[in-house]
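Milestone M4 deliverable, item 7.
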Amino acid sequence: MRPGHSAGAFAFLAAQLPMQPVDEPPLTAELIRSRHDAVLARLRQAALAAGRDPGEVRLVAVTKGFGSEVIREASRAGLARFGENRVQEAIPKMGAAPDAEWHLVGHLQANKVRPAVRAFAAIHSVDSLELLARIDRIAAEEERAPSVFLQVNVTSEATKAGFPLDWFEAAARRPGPLADAIADLRAVTVAGLMTIGPAGATVEESRVAFGTLRRLRDELAQLTGRPLPGLSMGMTADADAAVAEGATLVRIGTAIFGPRLA
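Output delivered:
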């Protein structure tokens, strides 16, 4: 469903996120909790403006570039769902929040699949059928069952990973390798699709990109006969547009933790 709300309304919501100060204050549990609550309020307002149930939208706090001490403070603040871009960076941090739900949101190299399967509850960045099959095989060996998201490059930008848009559009509409690969899975579950929105885009441009992902998800679900409830899309700058177009997981880093340290 594409709610009929104006781009201006969502531009207003996006403007409510304050700019980060040049000199970042220490990331205490109190500051992280305050920022996290502000983002949740922003997402809730965006969902209500789009005629959606705010409970359908979950936040993944992306901690790329921040160390274990920040993870501990975030855990103290009540955050329990974290996202990391690199397997090798994430694993040493996980002891700081052992009960948290960890999501891999960055590119996954084939030689890092086994540690990723062992460590993460969800992998958002599956960008080839070969990688999907490898994750499933290793997950079966490890007796793990992570959720996976198929990443689609909806903007067709050369700098972004993901299945090519033209290929995925065709594959989501008729039987073939994509539907067969999903049917053959033994251990993992395809929870939905993921994308990265266009950089520096207007609200309407972002909505077009995210709406494309939603349409592809719907077409693939109809083709396979499987529920694909998840849409992982939206970050600090374009979260409102993503929520308006159906995002169920929004990946937020800067609005909670400030500029990355690395």
